[in-house]
UniProtKB/TrEMBL annotation:
Name of this protein: Cobalamin biosynthesis protein CobD
Family per record: Belongs to the CobD/CbiB family.
Lipid biosynthesis in keyword set: no
Function of the protein: Converts cobyric acid to cobinamide by the addition of aminopropanol on the F carboxylic group.
Subcellular localization(s) per the UniProt record: Cell membrane
InterPro entries found in the cross-reference section: Cobalamin_biosynth_CobD/CbiB
Name of the gene this protein is made from: cobD
Bilayer-crossing regions: 12-29, 62-86, 92-110, 164-185, 220-241, 253-271, 303-325
Membrane topology: Multi-pass membrane protein
Length: 327
């Protein structure tokens, strides 16, 4: 696993290299490398416009949505196999490294969440609402300063799972096809997975497959966030673990409750909770038993916690590499 049969680095060593590059230059690379999740989201949005008709029956909507997801998965898997075939030829491992850098978006997501803190601190609520808009499914113009900060802390927990842990897990398990299938489903879930009248049927396959693929990574992300807590000032690992056991299943999502509960418990916060969507109050459970008046400083603590958890993830990959090399 240190090197391939053709003299290039092996998959786990490539993964470590990609994690290091993403940590240092990921926000810059985000501007020049294609985002597979973004491409999948555009694919699904186009399919949604053409195929999702409200007048069709339930079975037809579910079937058409399933076909879109099947086509997306096949395209992603085929692209991954092609990259691996190129990677087996001469210096083709560089193409595989680029594929990894396309799929790992941890630093880019971290930078966007940091921008929310800076917007709140420099521009107040209006600037914060604009900055958080792409990071949450909530109606942002109904959020006050504390609601924006809560959404940003939740986004940090989600991003650690979906933009870092899950793609690492997919690649370590199934190589580039696993990485591309995960990123494709990340985009499909963003486009079609939200509950509601329009996507409740057409997007049901996307949401279900996303839940299945993210089941183990989300739990690993929650555990890593809890283990990172002792390295962050007043954060507490014990509280994070208690919150995981008590509140992880309270979240509307099957998986997102795990990293969010760990984040809430570690930082002594209460996340989730009721929020307004236009003139309607959406009732959601509170996750964590700390304070709900989250501040911009708490966004910084959440980012620090996710950064340390990312280092633990790198250590886990290095340990796996050492274990495989020692066999």
């Amino acid at each position: 696993m240190f090197g391939s049969a053709f003299g290039g680095p092996g998959p786990l060593l490539l993964l470590l290299l990609a994690l290091g590059i993403d940590a240092l230059f990921g926000d810059w690379l985000d501007r020049i490398l294609p985002d597979p999740a973004g491409l999948a989201r555009r694919f699904c949005n186009a399919a949604d416009v053409r195929l999702n008709r409200a007048e069709r029956g339930r079975s037809a909507q579910v079937f058409r949505g399933a076909l879109v997801v099947l086509a997306l998965v096949l395209i992603a898997a085929a692209a991954g196999l092609l990259v691996e075939w190129i990677g087996s030829i001469g210096r083709g491992w560089m193409v595989e490294l680029l594929a990894l850098l396309c799929g790992l978006r941890g630093r880019a997501a971290w930078t966007r969440i940091r921008a929310v803190r800076r917007a709140l601190e420099s521009g107040g609520v209006v600037a914060g609402q604009e900055a958080i808009q792409s990071l949450t499914r909530r109606h942002v113009y109904g959020l006050d300063e504390h609601g924006i900060a809560r959404a940003a802390v939740e986004a940090a927990a989600r991003a650690f799972d979906r933009k870092l842990v899950a793609p690492v897990f997919g690649y370590a398990l199934l190589g580039v096809p696993g990485l591309f299938v995960w990123t494709a489903m990340d985009g499909a879930d963003a486009a079609l997975g939200s509950p509601g009248v329009r996507h409740g049927r057409f997007g049901s396959t996307a949401a279900t497959l996303d839940d299945a693929l993210n089941a183990l990574p989300a739990r690993l992300a929650g555990l890593l966030l809890a283990l990172a807590a002792p390295f962050i000032g007043t954060a507490k690992a014990g509280s994070a673990l208690r919150s995981l056991g008590r509140d992880a299943r309270k979240h509307p999502s099957l998986n997102m409750g795990w990293p969010i509960a760990a984040m809430a418990g570690a930082l002594g916060l209460a996340l989730g909770g009721p929020h307004r969507d236009g003139g309607v109050v959406i009732t959601e459970n509170w996750i964590g038993d700390g304070r709900a008046r989250v501040t911009p400083a708490d966004i910084g603590r959440a980012l620090a916690l996710s950064a340390v958890a990312s280092l633990l993830l790198v250590g886990l990959v290095a340990l796996l590499l050492w274990g495989v090399a020692g066999i």
